[in-house]
Amino acid sequence: xxxxxxxxxxxxxxxxxxxxxxxxxxxxxxxxxxxxxxxxxxxxxxxxxxxxxxxxxxxxxxxxxxxxxxxxxxxxxxxxxxxxxxxxxxxxxxxxxxxxxxxxxxxxxxxxxxxxxxxxxxxxxxxxxxxxxxxxxxxxxxxxxxxxxxxxxxxxxxxxxxxxxxxxxxxxxxxxxxxxxxxxxxxxxxxxxxxxxxxxxxxxxxxxxxxxxxxxxxxxxxxxxxxxxxxxxxxxxxxxxxxxxxxxxxxxxxxxxxxxxxxxxxxxxxxxxxxxxxxxxxxxxxxxxxxxxxxxxxxxxxxxxxxxxxxxxxxxxxxxxxxxxxxxxxxxxxxxxxxxxxxxxxxxxxxxxxxxxxxxxxxxxxxxxxxxxxxxxxxxxxxxxxxxxxxxxxxxxxxxxxxxxxxxxxxxxxxxxxx
Length: 419
Prior knowledge:
The chain has 17 helices and no strands. The protein is mostly helical.
């Protein structure tokens, strides 16, 4: 297969550019918020609260959002999501104004940040399913694996540059102007998406009652063992392997590397994942996908343990880099499973369930890491998370033997024949 096949489609390239700007802004914003909040409180639990404030609306509205996405035109819906994101970024820019701290208490600023993060969770509930559904309308089905790889690679590249830029920009221009840069990126993404044409609504059940629609989506996920296994495995691994939420503590109090080192640590997993994804365009991962996913998450847990115990900056960077590389394998396989196994008219609802299982587990993992760090100490909390990830792989390996044998070559061959 041509490794650049999806890139030869103009609107898919525009989509990738918009996604890069959007993820870059989102990743950078989260890092800047983490830094500002921990600087205000010096409390590890406050880092967990950031994740909790975003995950509550993201989870509670996810299924409803999936129903709306399946009922609406995807391009315009994405424009509305990006507009909401830009308003939130503008609000954070105002809250980080240096003169504001002399007029408003730190507690007021802190809770105002939490409120904006909460509204960001609402936007994210719609954002993930909309992006997933729109991408499927931009490329032929036979190119789904290739498109999913490039889309995930773009996501990871933005995740590399976003945190790294955040770390250095905090040091060079401060939190306030870093927020300004984030706001500009949201406007770039908004402009790019407007260049994509409106797409048809493929759902034959327009106007279907909400609860009936949600029931159908949930039943599909639980009946499709490949999707259920991939989502469950990744959710638990991410939930207990959320060590990145504690990176401000490692950078400031354990490794003593400051904002620049924090940016490097935060970017290291994304660098590893991005390299894995670029390589996967030439060496596809759909053969023996189940076994590869299990091995990837096992080694992810090992890397988290090494990072938790390390007192060397470069060993920590290396452990995070490898964790990102194997996590990249997991992400590509999971996205390929979702694209190949999901019917067009159910993409929004399935993507919403995915966001509940996996996407939101990042924030729940952040809260879990912050809470366990408060209770048992930072290092112990990270090592505990890595051990739980490895335990999850062992349970899944024996509990779901059909998942171990999962191979996606047949699905890809069928699409190639039909198109």
